[in-house]
Design a protein that fits this description.
Blueprint: H1 5-9, H2 29-32, H3 37-41, H4 48-52, H5 54-70, H6 73-87, H7 99-105, H8 113-117, H9 129-137
Helix pairs in contact: 5-6
Length: 140
């Protein structure tokens, strides 16, 4: 899920930042969908939580296995490389492929759901470059 929507959405500006807030603000159905208390309290499907935490659980398992085989230094070195690679990104309004992170995780040779059905060039995350850069720098 490193190349999926999460990599696009973490640098984007939330829509609620630019919307008018107050007692007379209406619910925007096009952007937020229908409201349901049940959907906010419980996940939609029993496997939803498992799928959201899949990459984290897989990394934990890999680090534990690596620690048992090679010692404590190996997972620590790999975690430092992950942190360094995650910090290198393009400007907020450009899509970042995170190819270095995929290479470290070993996902560069496999074709997944995000590679085919999650085309970032057709995403609706693109915004005004100047506003997005000012938001990232904390000027807004």
């Amino acid at each position: 899920n490193s190349r999926g929507a999460s990599s696009l959405l973490k640098d984007s500006i939330p829509i609620t930042e630019f919307s008018a807030s107050g007692p007379f603000e209406g619910h925007d159905l096009l952007r937020r969908g229908f409201t349901s208390v049940k959907n906010e309290l419980l996940p939609c499907h029993p496997l939803e939580l498992s799928e959201k935490k899949f990459q984290l659980n897989q990394d934990k398992t890999n680090f534990d296995t690596l620690r048992n085989i090679q010692g404590l230094h190996a997972p620590l070195k790999l975690q430092m490389e992950f942190r360094a690679v995650k910090q290198v990104q393009r400007l907020p309004f450009l899509h970042s492929s995170n190819i270095a992170l995929d290479t470290l995780r070993g996902n560069d040779e496999c074709i997944s759901f995000e590679d085919i059905l999650n085309d970032p060039s057709q995403s609706e995350v693109m915004g005004e470059p100047h506003i997005m850069m000012e938001y990232k720098l904390g000027l807004l």
